[in-house]
């Protein structure tokens, strides 16, 4: 190739890299992205419009080894292998790769510890990719807005709006704001560390 052709290719690649970093396109984390000792700590609080505090505390998760495999341990323990397994659902929580402007439908059915069943149906949109600051620090992060409905087998039904702020660097959300009927729940990352 001529020197001019190589120079043009280099410029095109440079512009492409700058565009990707400016707009942010992120793939789902992989198993090899996690390390033993990696740790996240969130604080959370849920309050009704009447001022009743329904939840208030902290949640800690840490990558550990169990029988030679990586797990994320906390209030529940899940294998990292399962955590990073691609979601083949047509209605996933995160539609990878993440990029600004992307939209999708999220649907979820669940059963709580007391046997109550429920479901969510939300429209999701990636609103932005920019620096976001929480107590744990400042990170480049996606802001994803979910709007829809939630209902359960006990007759509860409400409109809900969730704003998830997801930071690829920490492979997790750094802030969640959820409005559900008369209930407001906020969770924020207060510490993140790697060994």
Task: Describe, in plain words, how this protein is organized in 3D.
The structure is a single chain. The protein is mainly beta and about 200 residues long. The radius of gyration is 20 Å and the shape is globular. About 15% of the residues are buried. The chain has a ten-stranded antiparallel β-sheet with strand order 5-4-3-2-12-11-10-9-8-7. It has helices at about 5-25, 80-85; strands at about 25, 40-50, 55-65, 70-75, 80, 100, 105-110, 115-135, 135-150, 155-165, 170-180, 185-195. It has a domain at about 40-60 and about 90-195. The chain is built from two helices and twelve strands; from the N terminus they run αβββββαβββββββ.
Any key phrases for this structure?
single chain; 195 residues; mainly beta; ten-stranded antiparallel sheet; two-stranded antiparallel ribbon; 13% helix; globular; disordered N terminus
Number of strands: 12
Task: Kindly report the spatial arrangement of strands forming the biggest sheet.
Answer: 5-4-3-2-12-11-10-9-8-7
Secondary-structure content class: mainly beta
Beta-strand percent range: over 45%
N- to C-terminal distance: 45 Å
Largest sheet descriptor: 10 strands, antiparallel
Binned, the helix content reads: 10-25%
| Low-pLDDT segments | 1-22
Radius of gyration: 20 Å
Average of pLDDT: 89
Q: What order do the helices and strands follow?
A: HEEEEEHEEEEEEE
Number of helices: 2
The geometry reads as globular
